[in-house]
Amino acid sequence: MDDQSSNLTKFFHGGCPHDCPDTCSMVYEVQNDKLVSVKGNPDHPMTRGGLCVKLKDYEKRHYHPDRLLYPMKRVGPKGSKQFERITWDEALSTITTKWTQIIDEYGPQAIMPNSYLGNQGLVHGLNGGDAFFARLGATVTERTFCGEGSCTAWLLTIGPTAGVDPESFIHSKFIIVWACNSVSTNLHHWHIIKEAQKKWLEGRRYRRLRIQNRKRGRLARLSQTWHRWSFSNGHDECHYRRRLGGSRLCR
Q1: Across residues 44-63, what is the average pLDDT?
Q2: Which residues contact 244 (CB under 8 A, 6 or more apart)?
């Protein structure tokens, strides 16, 4: 490759590496083999050219001097932020020695792996190390305690369903955004809600967007109605859910 061609700007397509249901389609701009910017794919039906605040300057994090690239060993008290770089062999040897001591004294079940996705993806996240920990005899858990709590609550409240196709909201007659600040934390779904509102106006049909949240924020100002609702007990919540269409737990 000659110098002129190496200076050309190149664009690559990929997906967001974070554990987020949006799975945004991203466009990576590369100059001289260096990532210079990231943008949302404007042609993607969900991403629509927009990225959240965590990803819109991804290139800065990629080259940040504090990015962790090598094993670091704490050499001071916890909280002192005193670390020194060590080799991979030393890191593996340190872990092996410590774990062997734990197993000899307390047994293999004293070691309990915990992990989830974060920005690791499926291979390194959910199932990473399963065979190893099974062979070790470690304690078997759900591996994540943040996701399983919400999943259990979802199943008890909604039932065994994955939810509604977000693009189908445009056909809704009544949309309730419950305890969610979609403008800030679910910005791609908000575009679809706005399209539904536009469709209602064009068809001159009376439809409502209700925001159900304890705080009146940006999202509430963009809706037709906003309600602050505080439940003092389970009966109050069940009464309100019956008014909105009912819940199996409240019947």
Answers
A1: 88
A2: 176
Distances in Å between the alpha carbon of 6 and those of 1, 10, 48, 183, 227? 6, 9, 30, 40, 57
The DSSP annotation for 76-139 comes to S-TTS--EEE--HHHHHHHHHHHHHHHHHHH-GGG-------TTSHHHHTTSTTHHHHHHHTPP
Whether residue 232 is predicted with pLDDT greater than 60 in this model: the reply is: no
The domains located in the chain, with CATH, are: 9-62 (3.30.200.210), 72-136 (no CATH), 164-250 (3.40.228.10)
pLDDT in the model for residue 155: 87
pLDDT of 140:
84
Q: Which helix (H) or strand (E) holds 14?
A: strand 9-15
d(CA 145, CA 120): 17
Place of tokens 């309730």: 176
Query: pTM (2 decimals)?
Result: 0.66
Task: Locate 146 and state its tokens.
Answer: 């943040």
